[in-house]
Specification:
The complex is a heterotrimer of chains A (about 300), B (about 180) and C (about 220). By secondary structure, chain A is an all-alpha fold. Chain A has twelve helices and no strands. Chain A has one domain. Chain C has a domain of about 150 residues: Rossmann fold (3-Layer(aba) Sandwich). In chain C, the strands form three sheets. Chain C has a three-stranded parallel sheet. A two-stranded antiparallel ribbon of chain C has the order 1-2. Chain C has a two-stranded parallel ribbon with strand order 3-4. The chains are: A mainly alpha (about 300), B alpha/beta (about 180), C alpha/beta (about 220).
Chain lengths: ~300, ~180, ~220
């Protein structure tokens, strides 16, 4: 695919729309959490106020170069996944750099944010950052293993690493979705999905009761605003990634409303999977969560690879 | 419990035994730690509840109390002893009991800080526990004027009214009885 | 004679050379290496009035409270998170680190040991920052007015925006004080950070008068 300058603008628009959508999701989920606990809950527009308030903080301090680069890495992780994915399949506005990178690149972008936080948090020098970074890296690494196995299985199944072709193969009927053609890989990937959404039972990295807020302990003002922006993008990017690979992608319909409805429904339901698990289960310790990921999700993932190898 | 006190009286000279509000025995300063050791090892008072001090400024004495608990008998026994009250900046000196209970260390640090009673062998007794850089008379001594210190140091807000509790009770709550008593 | 080991922690902060595990000798200056030294500055509000008004509205509607219970009054903060009061619907959140919070709730009496930590936390908060002083103790000492170890007036050490009277105030009073604070912020009157920076010498003198083991730099930023 050739490079066009207009794609940069498209990517920026994609990210901007995603930020707003992510904030909306945050508001809705905050409301759901509150209603589960019989509270009134935050206002739906509260995330917007929070993020603007954070951007207009007056004073800030820094600890060094890596401290600056940490949020940038993190943002690259979130935005990178987004611009290399066909967020809406068939719409050039929302699939700006698709085709220039394949699945492996997107997988790498998923990890780079955590690495960036490790460097930035380390530069800040707070002991809690270091603890949380250790926990976060080990947990994310453990959660990546079943995901990578599931993606191996997909590449064997479709015979390609090109995201565009994988989405293409799933169009037509609901039965063409990976969910139905390769249920083992989907199961392994959905279990791995829980591990990187920073929700209970896998939120020991950020657990405020134990280690104040985790890696961004020392982050404040605009640095934190950057991280907060990424925290709105990243879950959406991740859900879009899963929808693209396993749930038939988000095709472009004639009507804008229908497209948005499908987009909303699919991402919302995939996101809610982690929220439902989150409100139902208590928190794992790090070694418990690693044991969890390296047991059943790993076996399911391996089974998916073997099954795909036999079948295709 | 009486049997325990009889046993103690055979070995140590007790100057006072009271049982009005719990059992309290009073011994001499040199006997105190050995008496506590005896109670712990022989009579089964294995648990140290607290060590505390009272400043009897008119008698020029500090009263030290070791409150012990016997988990088998479910009884408590207080061991009192009087030590000489030194004039600040001289510190009173007492034998340490930290080898019997590790928790005694903390109580002795507190007593050193708040009353100026030194326990020379006790570990970390010279480390500050609560007050950081206190440079006045130890604040729990009776000759330390806490009101004066507060007024000098902490910028009291003007216009604050305070009532002496005794007169307030007489005037406001029991005016009738107040007249009678006066 | 008193023989407390008071000099120990100060010695840890002195400039010295340390030998590393592999025999390497390097200089350590804790005051420079461990703390950010930047004096507080006066921040002028944005010249665009409508924009500044919008910013102030955002600041008022999104309140991040520092989860640091400094006294008995802090216990009144906890029910606000519960379904009964639910302060979240007013835009009130709790953050566990001073770096990410904007409102400091001083819950009740502050002993000398606590006020040292209060000052450190307050100075670490990024501006604009606001202080809610809860309970009588922060106003005039309350029932600890003649205590040897409890400060009488909080506003001599850090600038205070809103006082809440009572011993102790009910959680409703605390919620109401948050509403008062919001009103003040929206009117642009809650400039505690600038007040602190302008009268920095006076505040520091007061703080150093009571905190006798000053083992930190003058600015904790």
């Amino acid at each position: 695919m050739e490079f066009k300058y207009i794609n940069i603008l498209y990517a920026a628009i994609t990210i901007f729309v995603t930020i707003n959508y992510g904030l909306l999701l945050q508001g809705i989920i905050g409301k759901i959490y509150a209603r589960v606990g019989k509270r009134v809950g935050i206002r739906i527009y509260q995330p917007w106020i929070n993020i603007i308030r954070q951007w207009v903080t007056r004073s800030s301090i820094h600890h060094g170069i890596m401290y600056y680069l940490g949020p940038v890495f993190r943002f690259t992780g979130g935005g990178g996944i987004l611009i290399f994915l066909p967020v809406i399949y068939g719409a050039p506005l929302f699939s700006s750099f698709v085709g220039t990178g394949d699945l492996l690149l997107v997988l790498y972008f998923m990890f780079i944010g955590t690495l960036g936080m490790a460097l930035g948090g380390g530069e800040a020098g707070h002991p809690y950052s270091a603890i949380a970074v250790t926990r976060g890296l080990s947990q994310v690494t453990a959660a990546e293993v079943p995901l990578v196995l599931a993606i191996f299985s997909l590449t064997i199944q479709y015979g390609t690493m090109d995201i565009m072709k994988i989405v293409e193969a799933q169009q037509g009927s609901v039965l063409n979705w990976t969910l139905f053609t390769n249920p083992l890989a989907t199961a392994a990937a959905m279990l791995a999905f829980l591990g990187s959404m920073m929700r209970s039972p896998f939120d020991v990295v950020l657990a405020p009761q134990e280690i104040p807020i985790g890696p961004p302990t020392e982050y404040q003002s605009q640095f934190l605003a950057m991280l907060m922006t990424n925290r709105t993008i990243f879950p959406v990017a991740k859900t879009v990634f899963y929808v693209t690979l396993f749930f038939g992608g988000i095709p472009l319909y004639d009507s804008f409303l229908l497209t948005f409805a499908v987009f909303f429904l699919k991402t919302f339901l995939v996101y809610m999977w982690s929220v439902f698990v989150g409100v139902s289960f208590p928190r794992f310790r790090v070694e418990q969560s690693i044991r969890f990921f390296l047991k059943w999700p790993l076996l399911i993932g391996a089974a998916a690879v073997i099954a795909a190898q036999i079948r295709y | 419990m009486e049997k325990v006190i009889e046993n103690v009286q055979k070995k140590f000279s007790l100057s006072e035994v009271t049982s009005a509000h719990g059992y309290f025995i009073t011994c001499e300063k040199k006997d105190a730690v050995s008496l506590v050791t005896y109670l712990k090892n022989v009579e089964g008072f294995k648990h140290l509840v607290l060590i505390t001090a009272v400043d009897w400024i008119k008698d020029n004495k500090f009263q030290l109390t070791y409150l012990l608990n016997n988990p088998q008998m479910k009884k408590e026994l207080g061991v009192r002893t009087y030590i000489e009250r030194s004039v600040w900046p001289e510190e009173s000196v007492m034998d340490s009991a930290h080898h019997l209970w590790p928790a005694a260390k903390t109580y002795q640090r507190e007593l050193h800080e708040m009353f100026g009673i030194d326990f020379p062998d006790s570990p970390e007794v010279n480390e500050p526990l609560i007050l950081e850089y206190w440079d006045d008379i130890p604040p729990y001594r009776k000759d330390f004027d806490t009101k004066q210190y507060s007024e000098d140091t902490y910028f009291p807000r003007e216009g604050r009214e305070t009532d002496d509790p005794a007169t307030y009770m007489k005037e406001m709550l029991y005016p009738f009885e107040g007249e009678k008593n006066v | 004679m008193a023989k407390m080991n008071y000099g120990k922690r100060k010695a840890d902060l002195e400039r010295r050379s340390v030998t590393g595990p592999d025999g390497e000798v390097f200089e350590v200056d804790p005051m420079k290496n461990y703390f950010c030294e930047a004096p507080p500055k006066v921040y002028k509000p944005s010249p665009l009035t409508p924009l500044e008004k919008f910013y102030n509205w955002c600041r008022a509607e999104s309140i991040y409270i520092l989860g640091f219970g400094t006294g008995c009054g802090a216990i009144e903060m906890r029910p606000l998170m519960s379904p009964m009061y639910d302060a979240y619907r007013y835009g009130v959140h709790w953050r566990p680190t001073p770096r990410q919070s904007t409102v400091f709730v001083i819950g009740g009496y502050a002993s000398v040991k606590t006020i040292k930590r209060i000052i450190r936390s307050y100075e670490q908060m990024p501006g604009p920052k606001y202080v809610l002083a809860v309970c009588s103790c922060t106003i005039n000492g309350g029932m600890y007015w003649d205590s040897y170890n409890t400060i009488n007036r909080l506003d001599h050490y850090i600038p205070v925006d809103v006082y809440v009277t009572g011993c102790m105030p009910r959680p409703e009073a605390l919620l109401d004080s948050v509403e008062t604070l919001k009103k003040r912020i929206k009117e642009g009157r809650a400039e505690g950070q600038n007040k602190y920076a302008e009268n920095f010498e006076w505040y520091k003198a007061n703080q150093k008068q009571i905190i006798k083991d000053w083992d930190m730099p003058d600015y904790n930023w």
